[in-house]
């Protein structure tokens, strides 16, 4: 199966972002991708975080979700819709939700980002918890016989989430992101490659990548790693699409040669210690 990571430089205008996403999804589909993944906040990089609450949609309904469903159906692809704000029980905060659509346009899965980013180095300061509620459940789904595990951006720093998704093992892990340039330059490639190697699966990481109209700079480098940690495709900065072949035989070969997943002690044993 061909898979594609879409890189965007999203704006404060939802309509412009949906148009750009649609254009890039079509480009990925023309390249033969059967599964396409958009970046975190593909629909909006706002001038203030409060706008996420203003544009948040009800679960299962809204123009952003309808656009994703339509694109998946029109191109007959599995579409991982980056993230979008979904209303929560708290009227002042939203869920950062990754919605997955099947080739018939139906919602196949939804994962709400569990780990909320907070950073302060004296020059840059950001706290997602001001407007986001954390999700509480790991989610994986089946795409044409492949097990796909969902995660978002800051989740990447918490390997225990990915271990929980490996029961049974995933064939692909998705990491839509909007890494800051500072943290991305330091850690992006290292963390993604580690997740691929330790879980012996493909990793696809579609990202925001460039200087946004609100002044924020994101790291970009949307990419795809194979189960041995080999980099298969990458878009450094700006709009683009990274496409690669996901080969189940490659996963089986890596796991047969180095059966690390079968050598793990039960998690309960470590907890008891």
TrEMBL record:
Which keywords has UniProt assigned to this entry? Hydrolase
The organism's lineage is:
Bacteria, Pseudomonadati, Pseudomonadota, Betaproteobacteria, Burkholderiales
Segments forming domain CN hydrolase:
1-248
Protein name per UniProt: Carbon-nitrogen hydrolase family protein
Superkingdom of source: Bacteria
Q: Name one GO molecular function term.
A: hydrolase activity, acting on carbon-nitrogen (but not peptide) bonds, in linear amides
Report the transmembrane regions from the record.
none
Family matches, as PANTHER family: DEAMINATED GLUTATHIONE AMIDASE, NITRILASE-RELATED
């Amino acid at each position: 199966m061909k898979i594609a990571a879409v890189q965007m430089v999203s704006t404060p205008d939802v309509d412009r972002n949906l148009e750009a996403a649609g254009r890039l999804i079509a480009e990925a589909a023309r390249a033969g991708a059967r599964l396409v993944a958009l970046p975190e906040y593909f629909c909006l990089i706002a001038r203030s975080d409060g706008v996420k609450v203003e544009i948040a949609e009800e679960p299962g309904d809204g123009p952003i979700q309808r656009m994703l469903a339509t694109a998946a159906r029109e191109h007959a692809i599995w579409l991982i819709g980056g993230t979008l704000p979904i209303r929560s029980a708290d009227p002042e905060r939203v869920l950062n939700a990754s919605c997955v659509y099947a080739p018939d346009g139906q919602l196949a899965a939804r994962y709400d980002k569990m780990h909320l980013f907070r950073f302060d180095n004296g020059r840059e300061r950001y706290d997602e918890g001001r407007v986001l509620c954390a999700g509480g459940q790991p989610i994986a789904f089946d795409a044409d016989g492949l097990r796909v595990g969902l995660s978002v951006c800051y989740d990447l720093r918490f390997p225990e989430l990915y271990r929980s998704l490996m029961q049974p093992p995933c064939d692909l892990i998705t990491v839509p992101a909007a890494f800051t340039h500072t943290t991305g330059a330091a850690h992006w490639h290292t963390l993604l490659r580690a997740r691929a190697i330790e879980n012996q699966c493909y990793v696809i990481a579609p990202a925001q990548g460039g200087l946004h109209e609100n002044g924020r700079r994101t790291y970009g480098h949307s990419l795809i790693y194979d189960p041995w940690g080999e980099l298969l495709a990458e878009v450094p900065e700006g709009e683009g699409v990274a496409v690669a072949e996901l080969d189940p035989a490659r996963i089986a070969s890596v796991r047969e040669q180095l059966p690390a997943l079968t050598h793990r002690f039960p998690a309960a044993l470590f907890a008891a210690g």
